[in-house]
Amino acid sequence: MFTLVIGGAASGKSEYAESWVMRLPGRRIYLATMKPWDEECRARIARHRRLRQDKGFETVERYTNLSGLELPAGTNILLECMSNLTANELYDPEGGGKEAILLGIDALLGRGRHLTIVTNEVFSGGTAYGADTLRYLETLARVNRALASRADTVAEIVCGLPNFLKGGPQP
User: Fold this and answer.
1) Per-residue pLDDT tens for 112-131?
2) Neighbouring residues of 76: CB distance < 8 A, sequence distance ≥ 6
3) pLDDT tens for residues 80-97?
4) In what order do the strands lie in the sheet with 114-120?
């Protein structure tokens, strides 16, 4: 099974995704994709670790190349978040570009019991973007569309509430 959770900044999408995965039976892997570039990133990572501390997740940090990631078969994987992974694959010297993103997701789908991906809704925050930002936003939008077409369930989170765009509550 594959669930895509999408929403704007501070919409409650992460909290929703965590609670969704916590209802699934079995082992839970939290696949963290935020690279600790600076002190602000390190503080956000520390905050997220504290928030999920007692929720039964094993944290695996992976910033690029999900295809090469070895995870135990049959686990419930929560990838947080596609927005960071996309930036890493596009701009990190170790990134594989946009092609590596969906290849990595295909690899996770082949290994996990249930995959849940958190991603950001894009293009509603402004109208004028620089070329590099536009490249990132267009890539993330294309990835989000590809993920939504593959997902069994797509939930858009607005004000902490799920609006099911595809499928519906399963666990």
Assistant:
1) 899 999 999 987 766 777 88
2) 21, 24, 26, 27, 28, 29, 112, 113, 114, 116
3) 999 999 999 999 999 999
4) 57-61, 28-32, 76-80, 114-120, 2-7, 153-158, 161-166
